């Protein structure tokens, strides 16, 4: 007996491709459980149909030859289990999700997947200051400029500010502590994102503690570094910013300045006109991934997560 393959059927022969794509499209905005209850289907059936829909999205999108890539890692479960996400910053979409961790070998796997010809076309790689990512990129794509992501750099500065906050809280006692306690978000957030109550608390805190006031102003001003069009002017700004730390007793900031010095080439690269790329896209993708993980809480199917990540910015079928 001969079995005939019918092109209009989905991978699950009980359903057509048209129905599978309908289910997959609905799952872009709703959870698997919601769609399963609405359509009277088993939860696993909906998930399998959505996976088929996402695979078709990737097939139609093809494998791009990226010119500018963004590299970042995400935590997929507890105990420091990481996967690497690489995005095409020109097409504005993730193109690779994989690796076993955030090691150099895992980063090598991306370049092996992309192939030597397309790897040779990469002119700029945006990443955090993780050494493994830089080593792998410089070995496989030596022609590419390395640019350190602004948001990861500022995150280190935010940690330095929080360290100062904690040290001030430990140094003070009694009523002097009341302005500092519970104000971590107030100090780290952008002023425009604070509520009226938050701005009031910030004014009281900065008026009450001179060292935190200085640390806060230094944190707010450092972002100007990415506004310069000339590396010489950017360097002058950094030297002035670093000189202002003198006599301030802000050891976490001094360590941060030393880190910037060690990674200066990858930070100053943003001054070049050709390197003015959307640095916020990688952070935006990370936020989308966190939303996907919350909606799929408890789901241990890593292939499903991979497909979700890679299709999150693709248009629907």
Walk me through this protein's architecture:
54% of the residues lie in helices and 10% in strands. It is an alpha/beta fold. It is globular. The relative contact order is 0.12.
Kindly list the characteristics that best describe this protein.
3 domains; single chain; 15 helices; alpha/beta; globular; Nucleotidyltransferase, domain 5
- Output the structural class: alpha/beta
Please compute the radius of gyration using only Cα atoms. Answer: 24 Å
Compute the number of strand runs: 5
Strand neighbour order, sheet with most strands: 3-2-1-4-5
Task: Round the mean pLDDT to the nearest integer and report it.
Answer: 87
List the helices and strands and how they pair.
Elements lengths: L16 H11 L4 H8 L3 H19 L6 E10 L3 E8 L4 E6 L5 H11 L1 H4 L4 E4 L3 H10 L4 E4 L1 H22 L12 H5 L7 H13 L1 H13 L8 H13 L7 H12 L1 H5 L11 H16 L6 H10 L6
Parallel strand pairs: 1-4, 4-5
Antiparallel strand pairs: 1-2, 2-3
Helix pairs in contact: 1-3, 2-3, 3-15, 4-6, 7-10, 7-12, 9-10
Summarize the structure.
The chain has 317 residues and is an alpha/beta fold.
